[in-house]
Design goal:
Strand content: 25-35%
Shape: globular
Largest sheet: 8 strands, mixed
Radius of gyration: 21 Å
Number of strands: 19
Order of helices and strands: EHEEHHEEEEHEEEEHEEEEHEEEEHHHH
Helix content: 25-40%
Amino acid sequence: MTTERVDVLVVGGGPVGLFTAALLAARGVRVAVWERRAAPPVGSRAIGIHPPSLDAFATIGLDGPVLAEATKVRTGVARSRGRALGTLTFDRASATHPYVATLDQHRTETLLRDRLEELAPTSLRTGTALSGLRRHRDHVDVTGTGPDDAAVTVRAAFVVGADGARSVVRDLLGIGTTGRDYPDRYVMGDFADPEEPSARSAALVDVGPDGVVESFPLPHGRRRYVVLVPDDEAFAAAGTSYGEPEPEVAVRLAALVAERTGVAPDPASCSMTSGFRVRRRAADRVGVGRVVLAGDAAHEISPIGGQGMNLGWLDAAELAPLLAHAVASGSPGPWPGYARRRQASAGRAARQAEVNMALGRPLGALGAVGREALLRTALSLPTAHGLARLYAMRWS
């Protein structure tokens, strides 16, 4: 069995791993990506692409292809009990991208795969799963199984674990995680957009007394609804596959949206349903020797606010030049500074997500009145553009 030699092996061929590899390849680094999934990406999954990520995409010419397919969300509107509380605009959130883009994750992944193939042909190895890591002073030996269960080995100067919240890389390194679980349960679904034409380019957040309903426009006249739901049997069928919709869940979700907002999505138009609970996790260490973690492998936060995937991309944007320099210079890698900065960003994003969740929890009629007054005031102040920058991740 021949051992392949590369500068950097990226474990995980999702959005973060693909972007990391593309950034490295653009800098002349010999890179390989192991992705355990054999099939092409499917499903809408994460959809939000924030301005800092679009700026990072521009470094490899990916911003244009993404924006050619994406929907640009230029405003966010807060509502409650059928009334608008205020509007947040993103026109001052970024000099380059005064909006948040939305695009189905499978399309973003496909565009990333295409760009990586242009920069480093055949570097993506699908159907390949990691099984072992042996760290040495100047390299890492990696073993795995490829298609048809064939054994594969790679000797890499560095390894990046971008293999998600259940990271095998992290487990093989013996790195633990700390965090907490939250009681909140959400169900989301993609429907034909039922909103009035004037609202179809806006993100909408309804903070009524019974719990939040968030929604975001998607390409091709669709809208993603994310709803805080009761913890009951009605939504028990809402799994986490992000694939074909469960018809009963789609009907119940559409009814709940209509009940809370007055806008009724058509269940028959639903193309995806998925449920999730919220948790926050951070790896106890981000790097060990020549192995480093990025994305959800290093930090997992609430999907509310759409920051998780973007945090991973921004990890990649900082990590890639550090790795390229380490490969060129033969240095062991500057993990402490990278870890400190990225963990600080993840902590800030997690706290923001917690605020988002708190604002959307049921309060009853009396509590909702106070929340409505608070939002009206915050969105009417001259400093509201600062909130827009916060939600567009300009702090990152």
